[in-house]
Amino acid sequence: MTATTATETTAKKQSFTAAASNYIDERTSISAVVKEFGRKIFPDHWSFLLGEIALYSFIVILITGTFLTFFFQASQADVIYHGSWVPLKGIQMSAAMNSTLNISFDIRGGLLVRQMHHWAALLFVASIGLHMLRIFFTGAFRKPRELNWVIGFTLFVLAMAEGFTGYSLPDDLLSGNGLRIISGMVQGIPVIGTWLNFLIFGGEFPGDAIVGRLYTLHILLLPALVVAFIALHLVFVVVHKHTQYAGPGRTQQNVAGYPILPVYAAKAGGFFFIVFGVLALMASLFTINPIWMYGPYDPSPISAGTQPDWYIGFADGMLRLIPPHLETVWLGHTWVWYIIIPIVILVLFLILVAIYPFVEAWVTGDKREHHILDRPRNQATRTAIGAAGVTFYAVMWAAASSDIVATHFKLTMEGVIHALQVTLIVGPILAYFVTKRICIALQKKDRSIALHGYESGRIVKLPGGEFIEVHQPLDEYERWRLVSYDTYQPLMLRPNSRGKITFGNRFRAGMSRWFFEDRLEPVSKGELESGHGHH
Amino acid sequence: MRETTHKNARKRKTGRRHPLATVALIAIGLGLTGGAYAAFNATGSSADAATSSSSDVASGKKLFQANCATCHGLEAQGTDEAPSLIGVGAAAVDFQVGTGRMPMAMQGPQAEQKPVQFTQKEIDQLAAYVASLAPGAAIPDERYLDGNGDAAKGAELFRVNCAMCHNVAGAGGALTQGKFAPSLHGVTARHIYEAMITGPQNMPVFNDRNITPEGKRDIITYLQYIQKNPSPGGFELGSLGPVAEGLFIWIFGLGSIVALTVWITAKSN
Predict the structure, then answer these.
(1) Angle formed by the axes of helices B89-98 and B189-198, to 10°?
(2) Which of B116, B88, B113, B64 is nearest to B194 (CA)?
(3) A379 close to B (CB below 8 A)
(4) A173 to chain B, minimum CA–CA distance in Å?
(5) Counting one residue from A and one from B, how many pairs have CB atoms under 8 Å apart?
(6) What is the ipTM of this complex?
(7) In terms of DSSP bridges, do strands B173-174 and A333-336 run parallel, antiparallel, or are they unpaired?
(8) First-last CA distance in chain A
(9) Cross-chain residue pair A286–B241, CB shorter than 8 Å
(10) Of the ranges A201-205, A520-524, B128-132, which one carries the lowest mean pLDDT score?
């Protein structure tokens, strides 16, 4: 009797959740999705969380940004400021600037949210950059993930666009000067520049349309694109399964780690709050973009130390590095090479980043899928190319702060610029060779460790009088990590089906030689067996 | 009458022979000499005030010849090393010597600030000497230095006239060939005013037609306002703008979060 009641109550209890889930599942067939996502495995490594930092800072941006839209007025109508910040009282400014100042000083929590939004934006782009470097140096962009690299790259560009449009919205002196540079660059584009500039600004710079236009881009079009591309990016992550570092029990066919439900979801949720917390802490303690100091935009003044936010710095730096006065008048047009050349260099650089996976796939001719990540040292040429690219970017980036470098290190501004101009060309070449040599040296070290074990520091005198150092052999798990990687042999130059050696073939063979000429083969089984006898 | 005279004579007699007469005489004598001395002293000090500049000029000249003449010439006429100081006025001396820029330690892109080498009295004497050579910018009136002007107007004047070199927050900035506009943080109102009217180093002169004394007072008010009222947003990171912010997000923001990712993933192992 009592037993029946107990079963009835448990049945009732179960039936509540069960009924609810059943109700939803019968109408949405969601169980398949939950099953798929809930069982998705994530390997545990800190470098796999970099993309999550970007995702979570984007969520923070969405939340804080929504709050800001409640109070921001995207208008360049003239108003007189009557808010709380004394040094701007009675000053004429645009409604955009006025409302941003009101958000900062007269709306409760406004300054905190504004600063969180801006810090989160800087963190968003920075974490995307770091995530891309991790993907690049571990070779995670290889088949089948090339398209996801391109999607990620698009997100990087969209993030920069989001950042720049947002930075320009308050219509303060700093961002107005940034727009001035953009206007100048647009005007520098041959033939169409002037008209394009009129189109963007609705007439002569600065006009009274640009803030409203940027606002539409900033809160409507660009966020929609970012959300869509993030969704696509994550769907691909699920479809492809996660990559993992080489290790015992990890193959191209499996993924070792935790399922999303319950462990990983808890971890990721916790991590979101950590990112949110760090951003809130930074926003409450550190000033960012003090527009009340910059004052309203006015085309005549400019402040010393005017820079864009960090992610646009590389473009600003390239403009500073190009030698001045490069102009020619041809066909009745002025060709401003000091604008055209930087634009071409920047666009080429970005295109190279975007298409690198396809270039490498073409050079290797490898059609296999890769789910095990490379150790950067084992792909010396790729790592060296990456180091050269990072150096190139870093020099452009540093050039954007040339004036601050000059004052803080007691150098001349011209000296800083000239040194960086040389470094822009020499730096990447040096970085390439140095990195490549370091990678090969590390490979050699790995090889000797795999073959002979670690140096133990124990010196033994043999009966014959010979001194040897005893090496401590590796255990099999560690050795697996050191020996299980792929190398490619340079492609042989072969005639094609018509018996001809085309230029394309020759070029590809040359590239392949460049990539794989200096390489160390992984230690083979035979070598390992014979190597064991030595010490 | 006679009797009166007699009486008087007697009275006088008794007065002259009064036992306290000597004491009174001595008192009068001492009083007179003391008073005369005091009066002489007083006239002496007023004469001093009248000739104070001439004695200050004289001491200033001695100080000048001992400390400045090597570069500026014995008569402040200037040499190949340094410009003439005839007509620069007291304000220029008060600024350059009062901020330690002069005497210069060495030739360089511009005179660097260093600990002040003279007492304020010596600086005043030097200023008096240089001012005596030819008319020039005078030490500013205290009423422009009180910092009670219009901060908003001052901020606007500052953005239009000063920010392109000194940065909107007065944090300083780079100029060409190793020269720079220094930070204005902690500079006294007097020195700011003097810099505006004398244009030290590479700074242009902002005369009273360019920026009125009231305008200069407003600028000083603004600079004092932003120094007295720390940023509402928290630590200012040197007021250097996006470069400092970018370095901060990469090193401390992303750095701390990456450290936390290591912690999160290390726990499970």
Answers:
(1) 130
(2) B88
(3) no
(4) 9
(5) 203
(6) 0.89
(7) unpaired
(8) 78
(9) no
(10) A520-524
* Closest CA relative to residue B204, chosen from B261, B166, B258, B150: B166
Pick the CATH number of B142-229 from 1.10.760.10, 1.10.10.10, 3.40.50.150, 3.20.180.20: 1.10.760.10
Can you read off the two tokens belonging to residue B29? Answer: 């004598």
DSSP letter for B234, please. Answer: S
User: Which chain B residues are closer than 8 Å to A278 by Cβ?
Assistant: 253, 256-257, 260
| Pairing of β A327-330 and β A333-336 | antiparallel
Q: Following CA atoms B231, B233, B235, B240 in sequence, which dihedral angle do they give, to the nearest 10 degrees?
A: -70
CB A74 within 8 A of CB A212: yes
Site from A276, A288, A297, A298 to mutate, B interface, most B CB atoms within 10 angstroms: A288
Contacts of A53 in chain B (CB under 8 A): 254, 257-258, 261
Calpha distance A29→A37 (Å, rounded): 14
User: Å from A170 to nearest chain B CA?
Assistant: 15
Nearest CA in chain A to B259: A46
Chain B residues touching A45 at Cβ < 8 A: 265
Consecutive H or E run containing A472: strand A467-472
Kindly list the domain boundaries of chain B, sorted by start residue.
Answer: 52-139, 142-229
Mutate to test the interface with A, among B243, B247, B256, B268 (most CBs of A within 10 A): B243
CB-CB under 8 Å, A275 with B245: no
- CA gap A465, A156 in Å, rounded: 64
User: Hey, do B52-139 and B142-229 end up sharing a CATH topology, with the first three levels equal?
Assistant: yes
Q: Distance of CA B203 to CAs A237, A482, B107, B212, Å?
A: 59, 64, 18, 17
Report, as an integer, the average pLDDT of B98-105. 91
Using DSSP's 3-state secondary structure scheme, residue A84 falls into coil
The model's pLDDT over A404-453, given as tens digits with 9 standing for 90+, comes to 999 999 999 999 999 999 999 999 999 999 999 999 999 999 988 888 88
- Structure tokens given for A47: 């470098």
CA distance A154 to A352: 13
Overall residue count recorded for chain B in this entry: 269
Q: Would an 8 Å CB–CB cutoff place B267 in contact with chain A? A: no
pLDDT exceeds cutoff 80 at B268: no
The verdict on a CB contact (< 8 Å) between B264 and A49 is: yes
Strand, coil or helix: what is A459?
Answer: strand
DSSP secondary structure letter of residue B250: I
Residue B81 sits at φ, ψ, to 5 deg, of -80, -35
Q: B268 is written with which tokens?
A: 């499970």
Q: Look at the domain B52-139 and name its fold.
A: Cytochrome Bc1 Complex; Chain D, domain 2 (1.10.760)
At the second CATH level, the architecture of A45-247+256-346 is: Up-down Bundle (1.20)
The 8-class DSSP code of residue A286 comes to B
Beta carbons within 10 angstroms of residue B136's beta carbon:
19
